[in-house]
Write a structure and sequence with these properties.
CATH class: Mainly Beta
Number of domains: 1
Strand content: 15-25%
CATH topology: Jelly Rolls
Distance between the termini: 35 Å
Shape: globular
Number of strands: 14
Strand order of the largest sheet: 1-2-10-7-12-5-4-3
Number of helices: 7
Order of helices and strands: EHEHHEEHHEEEEEEHEEEEH
Structural class: alpha+beta
Helix content: 25-40%
Length: about 325
């Protein structure tokens, strides 16, 4: 079970609050401290979130044979089996003890944009097997992106940018937005033996919006260079999302904002979570923002195209698709 003596105290941002300067101040402090915070009153009904989790469980309850018909493809859509993802190879004995399902922004094959690595049609369970499943997930995908847009405006203001800075077409105008359903099997993690629900990692993109059930497991490490590392639990907060910053926002902000190491430890209970990863468009050049650099603090990272960075990270952490054909 969770060590409740070591629980991280995160700021909570009320997205319905009219006191924008106060919200910006709370968010900025959180982004500089840990890169993690809660958002409440986000506009997605709790009843609908419960429905999304129920539909997610229905999919993972299917026989492995049925789930394996939807194995992750070259567009990074579809099912990922237990142990498929290896997020922390230096410390993990095997891959993560979780299974997942990727859903991106739906684009028909004939759309020229569908030729890009992270755009295209999704893989969907048969409607006879899971009626209404696709419609529920597409609706959630759309609603989650609207929540991200609200948060992005506060982030822009906290970086002394125009509130609509991230709304530009090359950033959130045509984002790579990836909904991922996750199911952690009831295996007890043992860091000393390299067994994790999800190995330590930072997220790749702009921000991640995380919905989770009531089962504890998520941990963060605010100082990855500390010896030994100190890990704190991020407890579920009913009705709230956990938000964390990704590597691209850390690069944009010249490390003023933090993309923090996090991991999941299993405690013997099954756990379900739904991260929603949002990244800029394929061609967006991520480079140090003017408000985050000076002569005393020059850019720490070279510019990099979003597509290039994301493909590198996926290759580093996921099983090669060729291995699916061997099983």
């Amino acid at each position: 079970m969770a060590d409740y003596k070591n629980v991280s105290k995160l700021n909570s941002i009320d997205l319905s609050s009219p006191h924008i300067p106060n919200s910006v101040s709370l968010l900025k402090q959180a982004c500089m401290d840990s890169g993690f915070f809660y958002v409440t009153n986000h506009g997605i009904a709790e009843e609908f979130l419960d429905e999304v989790f129920a539909e997610s469980k229905k999919f993972f309850d299917l026989p492995l044979e049925d789930k394996s018909k939807l194995l992750r493809n070259e567009k990074h859509r579809g099912y990922t089996p237990v142990l498929d993802e290896l997020l922390d190879p230096a410390n993990q004995l095997h891959g993560d003890h979780k299974e997942g399902f990727y859903i991106g922004i739906e684009l028909p094959e004939y759309d020229p944009e569908a030729q890009r690595p992270f755009y295209g049609p999704n893989l969907w369970p048969d409607s006879d097997v899971l009626p209404g499943w696709r419609q529920t997930m597409e609706k959630y995908h759309q609603q989650a992106l609207e929540v991200v847009r609200k948060i992005a405006r506060l982030i822009a203001l906290s970086l002394d940018l125009d509130a609509n800075f991230f709304e530009r077409s090359e950033i959130l105008g045509k984002p790579i937005a990836i909904l991922r359903l996750l199911h952690y099997e009831g295996k007890i993690s043992d860091p000393l033996k390299g067994i994790y629900g999800a190995g330590a990692h930072s997220d790749y993109g702009f921000i991640t919006l995380l919905a989770t059930d009531s089962v504890s497991g998520l941990q963060i490490c605010k100082d990855k260079d500390a010896k030994p590392q100190v890990w704190e639990y991020v407890e579920p907060l009913k009705g709230a999302f956990v938000v964390n910053l990704g590597d691209m926002l850390e690069r944009w902000s010249n490390c003023i904002f933090r993309s923090t190491l996090h991991r999941v430890l299993g405690n013997g209970q099954q756990r379900y979570s739904i991260p929603y990863f949002v990244l800029p468009s394929h061609d967006c050049m991520v480079e140090c923002l003017p408000t985050c650099q000076s002569k005393q603090n020059p850019p720490k990272f070279p510019p990099i195209k979003c597509e290039t960075y994301l493909l590198e990270r996926y290759r580093d952490t996921h099983a090669d698709l060729a291995t699916y054909n061997k099983s």
